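Try it yourself: sequence plus AN7, in.
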Amino acid sequence: MYKGVVHRYRDHLPVDAAARVITLLEGDTPLIPLDNLRRRLGIPARWYAKFEGLNPTGSSKDGGMTMAITAAGAAGAKVVMCASTGNTSASAAAYAAQAGMICCVLIPEGKIALGKLAQAMMHSAMVLQIEGNFDEALTVTRQITDSYPVTLVNSINPFRIEGQKTAAFEIVDTLGEAPDYHFIPVGNAGNITAYWKGYKEYEKAGKSTVLPKMIGWQAEGAAPIVRGGRVLHPETVATAIRIGNPASWERAVAARDESGGHIGMVSDDQMTEAQKLLASANGIFCEPASAASVAGVIRYHAEHPFRKDEVIVSTLTGHGLKDPNRAIEISPAPAKV
Ligand code: AN7
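Structure, out:
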């Protein structure tokens, strides 16, 4: 029986042998061929979606959270806390519930998608909202967790990165080799950091012979890495990546540069278009921020056309049901009959 990413990749993870593993059987997410989309767009390469929206709480955060909560529990933590644009709070709340811990989440008021808020509330987290953005919420969270016996479970917690790197292992194990290109949305920049760490470790372990170019995408209104400076008032419909000062900024730049990759930006319209195209052409419903890694392929292909023998993976970080309001907003209204 499948037992989750900590069990599956224990040899590559810093887990205490005596630790009680907190898992919701995250991971083992599918790598779905995007053949319809590929043909529609005239992209000759093999193109796959790593659909992380199929995790237990519907986002890629679960792969990291099983590690963070397991490590917190092993260290005797009773209370965990995070700042969040939504998905981290949903995941932290669920894993804390499984562990019997108290979870406190700090969110930007009015700026998190409905499904994510519902999750944090249902899992009985203490939900606090601030009149401010994610970056401000993270600053406050760091101050609180520095001063009180509360464990921070944002991706600056190294166990989060350790857990999320297993998604790269899964891709290599499925394909038998690393892809040529890995496309991924960039918000707080934990995930691009984690994938790059995973790919490098697996290559070193002899599981793959190549390393992918890491191609990250920010939203135009929240693109500090692309613009080369903090964005004080980030704005985008992709609320998950409405972040102006990513905590793992340097590590994202290192992933880009070491891999010979690229970090670019896509507009809200391009993400929306990609989200709709993926849903209608390929039957996959991802959330707006996740569509950045599809919009990114379309943009990249326009400037550097992919070849037939190349392999592309786009991580779809969250499920479309996270943000039903946005989906209804961008779709034609049901006909009255
Ligand atoms: C769907 O939940 O930052 O670059 O607080 O939810 O690793 O931050 C979420 C981020 C991409 C960006 N796609 O990942 C949070 C949070 C989705 C996300 C990202 C997020 P990172």
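One thing you can check immediately is this: The longest strand covers residues 102-108.
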